[in-house]
Amino acid sequence: MRKSLLIIAFIFLVIASLGIGVKQIDWLHYSSWLETGAQVFRISRVPRTIALVLAGVGLSVSGLIMQQISLNKFVSPTTAGTLDAAKLGILISFILLPGVSAITQMGFAFLFTVLASLIFMQMLKHVKQRSIIYIPLLGIMFGNVLAAIGTFFGYRFDIIQNMETWLIGDFSKVLQGNYELIYISLPAVLLTYLYANKLTALGLGEEMARSLGINYSALVIVGLICISLTVSAVMITAGSIPFLGLIVPNIVSLFYGDNLRRSLPYTAILGAVLLLFCDIVGRVLIYPFEIPIGLTISIVGGVIFLILIRKRIRYA
Prior knowledge:
It is built from 13 helices and no strands. The protein has one domain (about 5-315): Orthogonal Bundle (ABC transporter involved in vitamin B12 uptake, BtuC). It has about 325 residues and is mainly alpha-helical. Helix content is about 75%, strand content about 0%. The longest helix is centred in the N-terminal third of the chain and has 41 residues, at about 30-70.
């Protein structure tokens, strides 16, 4: 997997994302471009493409961090209850503060995501069976418990329809003025890169990391905060995007190993490429209508996940 090929694919998909849409833009006529093209670009196409890139980068890097912390290649926001915790936080914000702003909803999502991540990490400490399959199954069960709690409160307060809107990721409603919270994921990604060497050491285990002079507990908390910020920002912007943080780090590690400083750029670019690709597929398959990206990424991610899990078990 060459970085140059990934960059070329990334540029091509960005251009395609900017050019595809229900509103046809006459690129050859300057007056038509000024009247409609510039507005469509500024209000819809550019914000959507930026949100796709940042979500792809952020979720992929978050999955990579979570795998290093948990010492398991199949742990990610999808299989550790992180996405379900963010949904529950948003639901609670609806119940306690109806009509609350997006930034407050994100605050609730962030709080619940951090708490759920800490609980999951505590659960791992008491697990003796460290199978690559057992830990993700435990995380999926934990996520289902959180989802059940959310469903109960959703029916109890008659807001189940509001909760359902967060179940499937969709970038079609991303417009100028309602997507800017996703920029919060950028500092988390940059912080991950700065601590790349130390996060790599986390993959060696707690005892080894401490023997290298690393403050293990503090670094785990920093990693979980970065994950929670990213997941919460993406959830508020576009909803739930499954599998991305699971499959992208695994694909990259097959080629470049587990050194984060080396694999992080590839993980970020591949995550953006995959999310852009799935979004474009959803926009053209039933044009002028659109398939939510949560559905397309679930299909593509599910197939890749089955291939990866078979490969990992074979060589485990």
